Amino acid sequence: MNPFSSGTRLRDMIRAIRACKTAAEERAVVRKECAAIRSSISENDQDYRHRNIAKLMFIHMLGYPTHFGQMECLKLIASAGFPEKRIGYLGLMLLLDERQEVLMLVTNSLKQDLNHTNQYIVGLALCALGNICSAEMASDLASEVERLLLTRDPNIKKKAALCSIRIVRKVPDLAENFLSPAASLLKEKHHGVLIAGIQLCTDLCKVSADATKHLRKNCTEGLIRILKDVSNSSYAPEYDIAGITDPFLHIRVLRLMRMLGQGDADTSEHMNDILAQIASKTESNKNAGNAILYECVETIMGIEETSGLRVLAINILGRFLSNRDNNIRYVALNMLMKAITVDSQAVQRHRTTILECVKDSDASIRKRALELVFLLVNDTNAKPLTKELIDYLEVSDQDFKGDLTAIICSIIEKLFQEKKWYIDQMLKVLSLAGSYVKDDVWHALIVAISNGPDLQGYSVRSLYKAFQTSFEQVSLVRVVVWCIGEYGEMLVGNVGVLEVEELMTVTESDTVDVLEACLTGHSSDFTTRSMSLIALLKLSSRFPSTSERIKEIITVHKGSIVLELQQRAIEFNSIIQRHENIKSSLVERMPVLDEPAYMVKKANSSQENIVAGKSSQTSLAGTSVKLPNGVAKPPAAPLVDLLDLSSDDAPVPPSTSKDFLHDLLGIDLTNSSSSGIVPSGGTDILMDLLSIGTPVQNDISTKIVSSNQGFAPTTKPTFPTTVQVLDLLDGLPSNGSVAGDQSPLYPSITAFQSSALKIMFSFKKHPENPQVTEIHATFMNLLSDAYTDFVFQAAVPKFIQLHLDPASSNHLPANGNGTITQTLTVTNSQHGQKSLAMRIRMVYKVNNQEKLEQGQINNFPPGL
After folding, report:
1. DSSP state of 806
2. Each residue of 137-159: pLDDT tens digit?
3. Which of 13, 275, 631, 649 could bond 627 through an S-S bridge, CB–CB 3.0 to 4.6 Å?
């Protein structure tokens, strides 16, 4: 027989394909076989039709196209015999899906088979309908499936229930037709029918609130009875798994009970006894028992439970944490993170066990436990928890130090009550893992030291001691350099010694040794060396005896291959040699850094980073209403992103000043703490003050710090300023004219406020394109219930283009304990002629109830 004729057996074809040694050989075999099948189809060969479909199914599973055999499946389904129908329905489910138009032709055959006297043919039709049913087929055949739910045969009932699930998902409007049959299935004894019926009830609850009410009224007692019967039943070999009778049925019932009890105190009260029985009596030494206990805990947390039942559930999770199985410990940690919002005191009892999980060998468990520890920290346990974590930081794996350091620093910054404790803990972290500390952490430490005059001497001495043992930690070295540059005389003179300190002797030469080591160390980077040069210049004025040595150190770097260091060395050397009369004024101690302003800027920067981390979305031309957050759009690559103009390393325009000292170091020597004026720009405030990598620009803008609203921006007019600049290299004065262009700044507004929601808008303009405005929206929940699935939408007039970036989250915590941020970019094509206007709509869920709020914004600041 020809190996590629339609009469070839399926096993022969499979053997021929598997014998191929290359993909090309396989394609050749499949191509010849498909040609033979096409020839058989064109000849209307009925004898081998079922064999051809079986071959096509195998070829389809290999990934080759088989669309030409779809009509053959329909012909087999229309046959009278069971074998032909079986192959036909199998081919239908494998070769077709609900999107195929040819599927419409099979509806009539399915209807006939659903009414067939042979139960096996009825079962085939139900299986096919449950797998490929479309919305049209569901509407046409729902009545037949509903009728089959009431038959006596348990196998038909089970398949009809599974088919009903598909129909309800495709056409939710048909849910009410299945309510009574679904409730009647819960009275069956056959476990297969029970599981299918419970799953049908679960899907009915998902698609219809009325269905939930109906089932809550009619099925709660039945579910409790099922759980009692299953948990108290004797050994049944057909359902037994690890000594537990049908854990799958347990889990399905518990999930449905969770849906019925959610938000209903009466129904939850009926469930309390059986849930307590399941939680107490189920054995936890087998996986099947653990699965039931986990689902029981989920149900207890999901319904309106009593406090005693909730504590029982959390204790079960505590036992899970001691289990040797990593998966069980991981799901327990996940559940405890949800439970802590409900009953934090009960979770606190397991704090010791959770801390042990932080030291686990499994990386995912360590990370999840660390997140949970962060949620557990409060004012009463912050100090002992921080001590435990810092002790572990010393011996933790290198891969884990980054996450651990970030959490420890967050805890210290969030909950410190004494500034000395804050400084001590930060020094420990910097000494143990300074290379893993982010820049904003050590910047915040410097700001805190600057604002603690009583602790400045203590801080610089503690840093000096820490440097002796941990000089390889980059962030620690930078803080040491900055503090010695500012408070070096306190270190040498033992100023402000506390009672707990031991007296130490440090000479002026010792401080210069530290800075020289930081400047010449092999591990020092550009930022550290730049800071060291500035600190040396300051010490040259405060310690005259070391001036010559400092000059020699600086002179060495006049030939540095790094242009910035070379320039600084030349300028500083010129100051030391030629400008002794102004040096002391030039290197005075920095004014106290504005701590509230820095914290506000840090918070805004973190929110911007969250938004920037999301994938960018492009606006759709010609449409006003934009897609909600979370909907995928083609990523855009705007020029400003490619040039990284919005990053934290952007150049900072300095404030205007007629004092040439400002031009020498780029530092405003006016008392910024009293006036409240701080340099604007995208770089970090400390980098502005240190003038590291900050070229001078002509744009001049300021932000006024207000006690009521943080940064209250103001607009200054543009004016030319004549500045007399002193040439550092030759000492000759020269006259230069610097023109300042003030980019307008705008106040934040309350865009929308109701009893449940508050929305704040802040604005940012790009001077090069006045038509474009960047709006930062902040959403705050004013109610005591959290919002989920939060979506913000906006519509604008046709002369305005609107682009929405993804929101930072879709979950809005209760009572203003957190916010969602989202960035909008609007382009006003008629800028200067027409002002901005916008309609907004917010959709969210509160306790699974969808809420809608909308409004119009007309109070945009003029000039946008």
Report:
1. P
2. 889 999 999 999 998 899 999 99
3. 631
